[in-house]
Write a structure and sequence with these properties.
Elements: H1 15-26, H2 33-63, H3 74-78, H4 91-96, H5 103-117, H6 136-147, H7 155-176, H8 188-198, E1 203-207, H9 214-225, E2 233-239, H10 242-254, E3 259-263, H11 267-270, E4 279-284, H12 315-324, E5 326-337, H13 348-357, E6 361-366, E7 379-385, E8 392-393, E9 396-397, E10 404-409, E11 415-416, E12 422-423, H14 426-441, E13 452-456, H15 457-462, H16 470-473, H17 485-516
Parallel strand pairs: 1-2, 1-4, 2-3, 4-5, 6-10
Antiparallel strand pairs: 5-7, 6-7, 8-9, 10-13, 11-12
Helix pairs in contact: 1-7, 2-6, 2-7, 2-10, 8-9, 8-14
Length: about 525
Amino acid sequence: MPNSSSSQTNGANLGYEAELFKAADKLRGNMEPSDYKHVVLGLIFLKHITDRFEAQRRKLEASFPNDPDILEDRDEYLAENVFWVPQAARWSHLQANAKQPTIGKLIDEAMLAIEKDNPSLQGVLPKEYARPALNAVMLGELIDLISNIALGEAQDTARDVLGRVYEYFLSQFAGSEGKRGGEFYTPRSVVRVMVEMLQPYRGRVYDPCCGSGGMFVQSEKFVQDHQGRIGDIAIYGQESNYTTWRLCKMNLAVRGIDADIRWNSDGSFHKDEFPDLRFDFILANPPFNTSDWGGERLRESARWQFGIPPVGNANYAWLQHIWHHLKPTGTAGVVLANGSMSSQTSGEGEIRKAMIEGEAIDCMVALPGQLFYSTQIPACLWFLAKDKSNGIARNKKLRDRRGEILFIDARKLGHMVDRTRRELSDEDIAKIADTYHAWREGSGYEDVPGFCKSASLEEVRGHNYVLTPGRYVGAAAAEEDDVPFEEKMAELTAKLAEQFEESARLEGVIRQNLEWLGYEV
């Protein structure tokens, strides 16, 4: 795990990002967060690709001081995986015209020019800055604000700062948009639990409902943090919401992550963009309990290996779609509503039973409440393994785990970061992930009452195939108490006497007030 000295912020110093967001949010005025999000994130993206372009330009200038033509040779940029930014789209041009009443039109023209010269960004960038509802003064002030991001930083550091700012802004917009606002964004600490548990170190990584791409960002960060090479993982994703797909493409481009992210409005169930591909790792946060997923048109799908999912709830369709796409040694982590662990309606109990008996389930994690922006529904993590008899995680050989399922109850972990939302700290994430690793590898795992339990299939059958961790982990051991019984009893009796006395006093006050109001008691 990364250094956890800054556990309350998940290892990142968010002061800079938070101050920047506050300043940007002040400029929003009466604009809805869902609209303003695209305005701000589009400009951050434009600043990012210009910074990378200018950094490459300086390199070329230093290497070829007597060849000015090479500075405008787009192949010299594309060869380094740097987007070509035409003259009129460069940040310096926009910054110089930030106070002009036509700044919105200039930004739109910049976005169009970038898309024209970079086919991978076709249809991705926002191009509505010239609309009357957008105040030109506000746009100019935003440009001035964003101009200071990563100013003077080295190229790699600047990319990381811009990436962190983009990710932080995504999270804040998810929180401010209300009930449905967070559907495009999975909280960072939840993603980190999944990534640290699965350790996507090498191979293909897939998300069939990828939202704004947070699973991929954290997967790449895992590889970097563990001294791996970014090119060791290949990323694939699908998203049915066009606006969210655009956010994902920009999010990954800001991070310099190359990925095959596809959009169609039918979604992964009805128009699977990768029907023949199988993946080493799958990480997904599907929409919870979707009732209108069109299941009646898919009754004959080959994906339903464990049973036909009910048309009124897509949870078990997602689990089986993901299972279907795993390689023979692949593993997956899936966020679902807690009801998925125990539901018996519409055949879900039978599908769960088939998955358990078929050795599809490796681990279940119950999460604390209030982690998500878009829902207060309690959530859990399902970890699937295509072959529990063996496997390798990074450089560790895994033991044969057939006949067992690990249950982790993490509901007591986390800390409140504001009035409504909780986060898991570095220590919390390490505790969950290390427990799973020790269990998978057979290296020092022990059941901890109230937190984790390695249950046999026989025990799971005894609980009627319900997978709620609380049923298995039991109660936490009571803390040792060295106070003698007589002393503790005297203390409790004295406290009880005080409470009786206070109760009598309050009763007298209430009677007096009622009499003053003319009521007899």
